[in-house]
């Protein structure tokens, strides 16, 4: 698991009022254990 999280682009974080960070999210939400993961930009509160 040596993958570095990608940097979020301005477009992906446009609606964020707070810190925006790339996080791993399961592709299959209903089967997270066997699912592949991909990165998604998520807004965080400070």
UniProtKB/TrEMBL annotation:
Gene Ontology biological process: positive regulation of stomatal complex development
Superkingdom classification of source: Eukaryota
A Pfam family this chain is assigned to: Stomagen
InterPro entries to which the protein is assigned, alphabetical: Stomagen, Stomagen_C, Stomagen_C_sf
Stretches assigned to the Stomagen C-terminal domain: 2-44
PANTHER family reported in the protein's UniProt record: EPIDERMAL PATTERNING FACTOR-LIKE PROTEIN 9 (PTHR37239)
Protein name: Stomagen C-terminal domain-containing protein
Organism for this UniProt entry: Gossypium laxum
């Amino acid at each position: 698991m040596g993958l570095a999280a990608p940097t979020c682009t301005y477009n992906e974080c446009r609606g964020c009022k707070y810190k925006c960070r790339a996080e791993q999210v399961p592709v299959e939400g209903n089967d997270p254990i066997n699912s592949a993961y991909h990165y998604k930009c998520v807004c965080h509160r400070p």
